[in-house]
Write a structure and sequence with these properties.
heterodimer, A: 111 residues, mainly beta, six-stranded mixed beta sheet, five-stranded antiparallel beta sheet, B: 117 residues, four-stranded antiparallel beta sheet, 0% helix, 53% strand
Chain lengths: 111, 117
């Protein structure tokens, strides 16, 4: 079993839809969780960063962490065509510097 | 957020030549930088951890003699792909971390698309 599992998609939604992206993980040592957005042929861009269970909201984005279930989610409200990208979850344990990434989910938002 | 600049964004080289990729943290100092490789539709694979003033730490399976890493200052790390071959063609991305403890965040460069012909 891989440490971080993420459905590669593609996930296709119409403009305005609510998008739910998810990752599961197996390493209970992971304490810090991130979501990155990566446009084609560009470096990843940090979207959300959280280190506690619960929800964190930033504009149209909400990150949710459930450490008991080892499950994290990213919700995008009122999705826009410009949200079309690959979304990578990443996580690491306390005291470690290296990140473990999911494979990324490709999101396609059609106008 | 913090800015990490990577250069060049694209490079095409002939088989057997060497290519150097630079990664700079523009508005913060980074004692540690990371180099990743990404194949199409795949996730980021960590190649090595670059430590300022000391040798890089390579992940298992990464040839240290082929992928030379130099971290000469707190704002610059370089990756040199030596004697490049077509199978080295890939997207290379660097990252640097800013902050401490729970406030540590990783920021990425724009990536370098290497094509070896």
């Amino acid at each position: 079993q891989k440490e971080v599992e993420q459905d590669p998609g593609p996930l296709s939604v119409p403009e305005g839809a609510i998008v739910s992206l998810n990752c599961t993980y197996s390493n209970s040592a992971f304490q810090y969780f991130m979501w990155y957005r990566q446009y084609s042929r560009k470096g990843p861009e940090l979207l959300m960063y959280t280190y506690s269970s619960g929800n964190k909201e930033d504009g149209r984005f909400t990150a949710q962490v459930d450490k008991s279930s080892k499950y994290i989610s990213l919700f995008i409200r009122d999705s826009q065509p410009s949200d079309s990208a690959t979304y990578l979850c990443a996580m690491r344990g306390s005291g470690y510097s290296t990140l473990t990434f999911g494979k990324g989910t490709m999101l396609l938002v059609s106008p | 957020g913090a800015v990490v600049s990577q250069h060049p964004s694209r490079v095409i080289c002939k088989s057997g030549t060497s290519v150097k990729i630079e990664c700079r943290s523009l508005d913060f100092q980074a004692t540690t930088m990371f180099w990743y490789r990404q194949f199409p539709k795949q996730s980021l694979m960590l190649m090595a951890t670059s430590n300022e003033g000391s040798k890089a730490t390579y992940e298992q399976g990464v040839e240290k003699d082929k992928f030379l890493i130099n971290h000469a200052s707190l704002t610059l790390s370089t990756l040199t792909v030596t004697s490049a071959h077509p199978e080295d063609s890939s997207f290379y991305i660097c990252s640097a971390e800013s902050g401490t403890g729970a406030n540590t965040e990783a920021f990425f460069g724009q990536g370098t698309r290497l094509t070896v012909v």
